[in-house]
Q: What sequence folds into this?
């Protein structure tokens, strides 16, 4: 069961995320910070490291989620709450969904991000399905495409996630 | 400019992705594989490592994208094509968008994944906006939420991405 943070807690965690974001700019990273708060109160920070790590997925929220999972040695962050300096983009929302994060709070929003030159808004539109021309996704009929799932069903040692 | 792969090439890369997925099951990972093909023909593989690495974001496509970016020392994979053993979930699509991947080809589809017990279909619905109760996302008014973007605009050494 997740226990939603009280409003003063939410503001405190968001202020930390914003502070991380400001500090990250001087460190040469993008202007984004995030904090994952576990049900037991442990916190894990993340900052945007896309350009420093040459990792297009190293958004602050993803970094915080990856760190929380690694340090708790559990890919399932059930009941955790994610605090982000800015509205999470689809990458970060999907990462939080897969991590079973229970709720997300953010400070600045997608329009603020767009005004600062970030593409989140375009990517939201992509998921809205209005226009996929930005990156076409095509199904290819392939004999044997079911083999991985057959192997998975047959493998007694599988760890579900 | 991305140069779309010819159909025989697409089948060959998808067969490789499917083979990686099958092999990954025996290695204790999820039944997913992916290949990033760069415009110059270099290829970078990925397999699902969620449970082995305790990383909820370590989907095959994300792993392949991260590897391609790290090994080419460039967070921008403009013109690359992503081949996936199964239809990429929203996490993987968003990672590909941010990486500026030009096109995606996949073999098995989201219904195959759902039949095998994976939540991709539910997450697609989340992005369709029909039901956000799975993970509520809330804006919190916070004084100073614009500070990171102000710092970004003022920082002469920023690297845009």
A:
């Amino acid at each position: 069961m997740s226990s939603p943070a009280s409003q003063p807690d939410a503001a405190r965690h968001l202020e930390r995320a914003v502070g991380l974001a400001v500090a990250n700019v001087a460190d040469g990273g993008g202007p984004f910070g995030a904090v994952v708060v576990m049900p037991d109160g442990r916190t894990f920070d993340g900052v945007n490291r896309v350009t420093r790590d040459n990792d297009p997925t190293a958004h602050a929220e993803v970094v915080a989620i990856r760190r929380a999972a690694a340090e708790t040695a559990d890919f399932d962050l059930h009941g955790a709450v994610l605090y982000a300096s800015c509205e999470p983009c689809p990458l970060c929302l999907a990462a939080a969904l897969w991590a079973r994060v229970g709720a997300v709070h953010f400070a600045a929003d997608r329009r603020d991000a767009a005004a600062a030159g970030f593409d989140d808004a375009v990517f939201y539109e992509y998921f809205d399905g209005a226009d996929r021309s930005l990156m076409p996704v095509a199904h290819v009929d392939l004999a044997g495409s079911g083999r991985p799932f057959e192997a998975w069903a047959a493998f007694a040692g599988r760890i579900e996630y």
